[in-house]
Each structure stands twice: as C-alpha cells, then as structure tokens.
Amino acid sequence: MIAIGFDIGSSFVKAALVEVETGKPIARARVPEVEIPMEAQQLGWAEQHPNLWWQYLCEATQKLLTETDINAEQISSIGISYQMHGLVLVDRDLNPLRKSIIWCDSRATSYGEKAFEKLGKGYCKDHLLNSPGNFTASKLAWVIENEPELYQKAYKLMLPGDFLAAKLSGIPQTTITGLSEGIFWDFKNDQASQALFDHYQIDQSLVPEVVDNFTVQATVSNAGTQATGLKEGTPITYRAGDQPNNAYTLGARKAGDVVATGGTSGVVYALTDQLSGNELTKVNTFAHVNYQPQQKMFGKLLNLNGAGIQYRWLHQLMGEVGYEKLNEMAQQAPIGSNGLQVFPFGNGAERMLDNKIVNGHISNINFNIHDNNHMVRATLEGIAFAMIYGIEILKNDGVDIENLKVGNDNLFLSDVFSKTIADTLGISIQMLEATGAEGAAKASISNPHQTQNNDNINITKTIKPNPKLQVESIASFEKWKTQLLNNII
User: Same domain for 89 and 233?
Assistant: First the structure.
C-alpha cells in the first residue's frame, strides 16, 4: 500500500508518495512551476485565494498518479501539512468567502496588542501560552470589524489545511494544534478560550468539529474523487501545520529536540514539556502534533518572516543567475562581507521584534569595495544572523540548543548560510533527507506516541563548527546585532 502526503506552502503545493511498509519515498511533485503569488492590496497585507491551493493540490495528485502509473486503489491514507496561521472563512457549501489572510499578513497586529492588554499578561501566559499577536484569531477580529457583512455569511473558520481536508471530504474539521496556532486554545482548561472569543466577539459555533491529528478524521468524498482522482473513501489520517510537521518529519518526538527550517520564513522549533513565559511576546508556544491533555508536549517556535523571501528577492534582482551560482559567489567574499550588512525584515511585522514593521535594510555599502559577491554573502549572513538573534531569544525562554536538525533543502543548502550558523553558535547541524510532503505521508501511517526516531531518515550531511572561524563569525554577528539594536529597532 501507498500513503500520499501534501505540503501546502505559500510558494508551492508539494505532494509525495511513500511506501507504507518501508517508508521509502516513491515520487514527488511540485506545482505550480512559478511560485504562488501573494497579493497585497495595502502595505503589510498578504493574501492568497484558498481555491488556488485546492487547484494545485488536485494538479499535484493527478501528476503523481499519472507519472507513476499508480492506481488510486493503492492509496491507503492521506496526510496534510499546511502553512500555519492563515484564516479561511467558508459558507455552508465550503466555498471561501474571501481570500485567505495568510501567515505574514500584518494588518491585525494592533488587534492582538489590544487583546493582550485587555485579557492581561497573566491570562495570556497561563491559558493561551502566547500573546494573541498577529495570529488567526486577531485576523478574524479584523474581518469582524472591517467586513461585517461578509462575517455574517461565514459558516466555519478554518486554517489552510482544514480547508483542503474539507474540500477532499466535504466535512469541516480542525485540531487542537490548529486552534492553538490560531491562539484560540485555552491550555489550562483544554478547550477553546471563552475569554478570547468573548473579547473578539467571535461566534464560537464557527469552530469546526475538533479531531485528533492522528486518526481517521474523514474520508474522500465523491466530489473529492472527481477533482483529484483519489479513490472515494480513502481516509485522511493526519494534518498539522508546516512547522510542527517539519519537526515531526525530522524525528522530533521528545523534549529537547530542536529543528530549523529556512524556507520563505526561517523557523527554529524546539520541543519541551516545560513552559516559560520569559519571552511571551516574541516566542510562540503551540501544541505539538503529539500533544495530549494527559501528556502534554509543546513546540516553542521562533519565526523570522524574512528568510528565503529575502534571498529570492536578491535572486530576482540578479537576473538569470541560479541559486547554485549565487552560493558559489557568496564563498568568494570573506566572513563579514567587508562590513556590508543586510537586515532581512522586509516581510511584514516580525514577532521576534515585538511585532514591529521595520522593513529590510542594507547598511555600510562602500562603492569602492563591495561587489555582487559581497551582496550575496551579506544577504545569507544577514538571514543567518537574524536566526541566531532569534535563537538567543529562545535561549532566554529556557531552550537549550546543542545541535540542530534541518532538512536538506532551501537555505540550508548554502554552505555559507549553514556554516555561519554553525560557526557563530558553535553547534553542529545535522542535515536529513526529508521533505514536508513525505513527512505528512509517513505521519499518516505512524504512531504519534513513538518517542524514538525509527523513521530511517538518511543523514545527508553534518556541518560541524570550525573553531578557527568562530571568533571572526561571532565578531561579525555582534557588529550586525549592534547595528540592529541601535539603528533599526
């Protein structure tokens, strides 16, 4: 039998087939060919239409089935990973009422700040484990105030993965982990937060049925079959936000495991069964995929909005130069890029900067010294330094990081980026052969309470810190941080 997994990102929809008995990957697909656009009608906004995700999920499924000659009868389970925090509002026919306000949209920041003040730090710390911030609940509050007629038509609120599961099955559902990432969940009472719903005046009937992350949640309907080619009755057995899913994919099961990703955004995600509220407004704490009220496991998430999107911006400016060539160019410039500094904060309000919108900055350009090589290296170093700055915040919140597990894709494929993090922090980075879509497929057939990593994930590379370069790397980071603190934020 074969499991299929989907990874719904803000750039692409990815799908993968995995052999159930061995966990061996069979095939992958990624659509569309060009990245999914983000629409911004105003500064700080970011929207995508949910029907685009559905269209691309269908195309990716059909592509896999066609290119592999695999019969839909062989697909035994479906797993879904999705971009976190997006708000999807649907009518009774499960049609979107508006474009999704996605994760990096900053319009609701002020709503979250007011809720934090009204609910109180104590309630947010003890019940929500977060300040409401710019998350899904606050985005919905924006809709209630600014689009009241549309809100009155809403039947259910969903996260992106919930919407796609509903399109496959015809049944609206969500999970505790999903509600926690939207800051809807009261961890102290293990139920939806009545105080938050009351404050935002959200109708609690909008919350769909809550199901487990790992269970037969629903099955593919006739309409889902017609759209995707999957067999009617195929069970959907797993869903999770992309960062918890990435952590699970990379073998994170127990307290102390720490993983990182370097996609459009950069994320460090640490598992813990202990809570600290030292950085309540900068670090997010969510229910991990194997969270149970009787056995709680949390994921502490440090997010940098402007990571891969900053590198992509540079890539577009450079014209026809491929990413491999850019990485080669970066190696031609010295550590510290001869003083050139890049601050990758041009993708909305940054949670780790207390939800400030500071935009991107380039500092200390000298026209007689700096060339394209310096610019590429400074960009990679700037993203790496921003993540390191975030890791310092995580450490202040009680997270001890001795090594990182990462996937062998995106920014971590750059030697300059990976080595900058390893050398500056003095830690090893373990690169693993794993993708979000394959992880979702494997999770659809896995034991969620398994604490050991028995997934046979291949280690493709280990990046160890170079003590000879550490002093220089730390000095470059400290100069970058000084400029950030004194002149940018």
Answer: yes
